[in-house]
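Here is one chain, start to finish.
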Amino acid sequence: MAKRSQDQISAFADLVEARSTAMLRLAYAVVGDYQLAQDLLQESLVKVYVAWPRLRDGAAAEAYVRRTIVTTAISWRRRRSFHESPVDAVPEENGTDDSDRLATHDALWDHVRGLPPRQRTASVLRYYEDLSEVETADLMGCSTGTVKSQVSAALGKLRERVGPHSGVLFPDDQAVTR
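Its structure:
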């Protein structure tokens, strides 16, 4: 194991301090459970810390952490002990105040968490993390065509679940194209 200099330790600590909230959001979006997201982020950061002395480009460290989060989540899903439990019930909408908007947001995330893992990951990386198809494909270790098909299937399932004219997915009831 390579010896870490004080500068390397400091650089890693600075990255964790500055970006841990965003990294936790990504982990949560990928696995759909807050406690699992915390575990996923912790395991990913341990892996990054071990690999830190071998990183060639410190500026790309955050991208490396994101990739580690995604690949770790994928390896978790391959384990027999990992199980997802989709949500069947959707809260009803009654108005447009903030509490209804937040309930709608929660209901949408429930639907997103109910997507198959690859569709959820592709959708989260594309629309929540605002990555391009190429960047998403690189993080997921697949082709851009796979990303396109996974996102398309995910959006189709979400539209099917929330209804075509609910305004939950797209306020103007228009499909997002990029």
